[in-house]
Design brief:
Rossmann fold, two-stranded antiparallel ribbon, alpha/beta, 12 strands, 9 helices, globular
Length: 304
């Protein structure tokens, strides 16, 4: 048997990502992965009175209540990072083209970041949520652990439909399970019933939280291709629509823009940075541009 035919599907995927994504990131970032994760892996060093410009996520509410004036926690950077991936595997992430589903980008992003972290000795875990129930994948390090996570994601059955996704379930589970301050990636298209926004903000007070928003261009702008049968990814409800109709396409785009504005406001409220991952975009470019924004933000915070 040829050696390549004996490799598992997770092994083949990770090898492809090593060549196509991770090596490119190594060349561009030159090992400076802290530009992606600054603020994570922190140990408490001291507590002092709040000063203008301090990160309000570091407010110590117990001391603040006792002293009747705001106090913040000061941290020193720990070399080891514990990272968690909160993975939304609800039916809406199966949207896209045959070769480019949001689910595919979710798996690739998680595999790349888990590999980057674990090969430097860090530990990663995951909480998987399919719109019905969640499963905890405990934190470990090493390449074999990444392969097991990929295998779990690839084997995860896809639900034809489910009750409306409620991200509160996933975020509440993370708040209960993740006790030590960690780096937390929330990987989702954020198509959910309302109410998750405050839980995201609550999680961000305890951890370094990054929102990874999955999207497909056809969710924003419909192509003009005539009569199309559209199906709600969450409920399975179907409806014929005429994409020749300019008014319908305009209203569709306007609704998508309103939803985007609402998401942007939710992320700002939670003080969470957002990495946008498109089904048709370059994952390396998305990560590098995100790292650049984070680095610039850190510089501005230090100089202000």
């Amino acid at each position: 048997m040829h050696p390549s035919t004996s490799r598992s599907a997770p092994e083949r995927l990770l090898q492809r990502l090593d060549w196509q994504v991770i090596r490119r990131l190594d060349g561009i970032l030159q090992g400076d992965y802290r530009s992606l994760f600054y603020g994570s892996g922190l140990d408490l060093a001291d507590i002092r009175e709040y000063q203008p410009g301090d990160d309000i996520r570091h407010l110590d509410w117990n001391v603040t209540a006792r002293m009747s004036t705001p106090y913040v926690r000061l941290y020193t950077e720990d070399r080891e990072i514990t990272a968690w991936f909160l993975l939304d595997l609800s039916p809406s992430v199966d949207f896209g083209t045959v070769d480019n589903l949001k689910r595919d980008r979710l798996i690739e992003f998680s595999a790349v970041l888990a590999r980057l972290l674990t090969r430097h000795g860090n530990r990663v875990g995951a909480i998987l949520y399919d719109g019905v129930a969640e499963r905890v994948f405990p934190t470990r390090s090493g390449r074999l652990h990444v392969l097991r996570l990929i295998d779990e994601l690839q084997r995860r059955p896809r639900l034809p439909k489910a009750p409306f996704t409620d991200l509160r379930v996933l975020l509440a589970s993370a708040y209960r399970v993740i006790r030590r301050r960690s780096l937390v990636f929330v990987v989702s298209d954020f198509i959910s019933t309302p109410g998750w926004e405050d839980l995201l903000a609550l999680l961000a007070r305890r951890h370094e939280v990054l929102a990874v928003r999955l999207w497909d261009p056809r969710e924003i702008e419909l192509p003009d291709i005539g009569m199309v049968l559209m199906q709600d990814a969450e409920t399975g409800e179907q409806l014929f629509v005429d994409t020749h109709n300019q008014g319908f396409r305009r209203r569709f785009n306007e609704a998508a823009m309103r939803r985007q504005a609402s998401l942007d406001e939710a992320f700002r409220h939670a003080r969470v940075d957002v990495l946008s991952v498109s089904t048709e975009g370059d994952l390396v470019r998305a990560i590098v541009e995100f790292a650049g924004r984070r680095k610039q933000k850190k510089h501005l915070a230090r100089t202000s």
